[in-house]
Amino acid sequence: MACTTILVGKKASTDGSTMMARNNDMFVADTPQKIQVIPSKDNQTGKYVSNKNGFTFDYPKKAYRYQIVPNVNVEKEGIFGGSGFNEKNVGISATESVYANEHVLAFDPLVKNGIAEDSMVVAVLPYIDSAKHGVEYLGEIIKNSGSPEGNGVVFSDKDEVWYMEIVTGHHWVAQRIPEDHYAVIANQVAQEEIDFNDPENFMWSEGIQEFVEKNHLNPDHEGFNFRHIFGTDTEKDRYYNTPRVWFGQRYFNPEIDQSPVSSKLPFLQKANRKISLEDIAYILGSHYNETVYDPYGKGSEREKHLYRPIALNRTQDSHIMQVRNHVPEELSTIMWVCLGVPAFNPHLPFYGNATDSDPSFNDTKLNWNLADGYWMYRTITALVEGHYSELIESDRDFVKDCRENLIRLVAETDKQAQRLQGAELTEYLTKRNHEIVDAMKEKAMKYIGELVKSSIDLSKLTYKMDINL
Question: Catalysed reaction per UniProt (predicted)?
Answer without folding.
Answer: an L-aminoacyl-L-amino acid + H2O = 2 an L-alpha-amino acid
